[in-house]
TrEMBL record:
PANTHER family noted in UniProt: PHAGE INTEGRASE-RELATED, PROPHAGE INTEGRASE INTD-RELATED
UniProt domain Tyr recombinase: residue ranges: 157-333
BP term (GO), one: DNA integration
SUPFAM superfamilies: DNA breaking-rejoining enzymes
Family: Belongs to the 'phage' integrase family.
InterPro entries in the cross-refs: DNA_brk_join_enz, Integrase-like_cat_sf, Integrase_catalytic, Integrase_recombinase_N, Tyrosine_recombinase_XerCD
Pfam (any one): Phage_integrase
Protein name (database record): Tyrosine-type recombinase/integrase
Record key words, sorted: DNA recombination, DNA-binding
Family matches, as PROSITE patterns: TYR_RECOMBINASE
One example GO MF annotation: DNA binding
Amino acid sequence: MPVRRKDRKGNRYWYGRITLPSGKSVEKRCESKREAQEWEVLARSRVETFEETDTVSLALLAEKHLDHVKTRLSEKSYDEKRRVFRRLCQEIPPATEVAKVTYARVETVLDKISREKSGHRANKYRVHLVRAYNWGMKALGLPSPNPWQIEKYKEEKNPRYVPSEADFWKVYAVAGEEDQRMLLTYLHTAGRMREIFNLSWDDVDFESQRLQLWTNKRKGGRECDWIPMTDELAQALRVQRLVTGFQNYVYVNPDTGTCYKWHQKFMPRLCIRAGVKEFGFHAIRHLSASILDQAGIPLAAIQAILRHKSSHTTARYLHTLSGTKVALNEAFRRSTGIDGVGAKKKAQEGGASRA
């Protein structure tokens, strides 16, 4: 049964604990009681069946692989991988030897997930399982080739809703001043939600008029990219610095005094007030790309701004980034003008009249 106690530094942690047949106790520090309980289940199944053999159980593969990736993945990705193994061990006894978990057995599990949830969910589980077995071949000596290479499932993808520029500026118009600066930051950087939430003043370089965004969506872990600031964004951030300049983060949650972790009701509330179809932060990223595309910005420049890295675009990305500040300024300057009257100005006037 899990126990909770302090470590040498006085921090309290949950510990999973099992007793071996020899009488020796084995324990592992965990982040939560639930994680400790799951570890105990996996550890007991391993001890009961394979303690004195060289075979690898499903429980052992799950435990070892999760230990391996814990320091390499974001918390969100790690939790997703845990859910995959938890579901697999619900369908197949965790004490089962991995060599006996055949293609057909894994396919049966994924078929069930596809029926219950979706083909998209089954494909995500498939990716985690294939990667786990591939790792097991290198680290635990599992037999090759990988028998879990299940054929991909059909996915019905609904196109993401991308708001019009006019709708964005309507939402902008009903937001508070600090929220307007945050929305402008999303639009002019095409940043992901957490990249802007985690933006600190150390990441903002006014002298070179650029900022760096940190992402976990890379195989190598957390990395940053420098993004040119438009003139309008630089001006907005100078104003924001008067508000939060003595704090670490650019945008601070007033309830916690630190950066935002979630802002779930923020965009829906603004969309309702503005009278437009609901959209979120990631839709603004798509809108930024759409604005750049409509402005005739080269694809290589858009890839540099969105930071969609791959082996064949890295060289072009480094070459193109130096010219993207001009492209950004030109594109977003044109995006505010419709028939000689700015969409931004129209939206703000409409917002003021509703108020």
